[in-house]
Amino acid sequence: MRRDVFQAIADPNRRAIIHLLSGERLTINQIADNFEVSRPAISKHVKVLEECGLVVIKPQGRERYCEARLKKLGEVSEWIAQYQKFWTGKLDALEDFLYKNELKSR
């Protein structure tokens, strides 16, 4: 099953894993050491991140290292940007309205 990036960031543990991997590549065990959930649960989270294209797992000897691929987060940024533009316009209009009403009441 191919998941999308929004599914990945919906879970706080996956967001924390992305944050960890944004600084360095880690094994599943190294990732799991940072959480109070089981290693199998972390493996499932990493699998979701891999399916979303946010993590790549590279074998090196007997270890499997996870690396972040943050380019896909651009989809989230683009989605947010459209609402940021909308709300910035609304808040600017509200500010203008309040300023004009304040001037009238003086």
TrEMBL record:
Pfam families: HTH_5
SMART domains: HTH_ARSR
Residue stretches in coiled coil: none
Source domain of life: Bacteria
Domain HTH arsR-type: 1-88
GO molecular function annotation: DNA-binding transcription factor activity
This protein's name: ArsR family transcriptional regulator
Organism (species): Sinomicrobium pectinilyticum
Lineage, opening ranks: Bacteria, Pseudomonadati, Bacteroidota, Flavobacteriia, Flavobacteriales
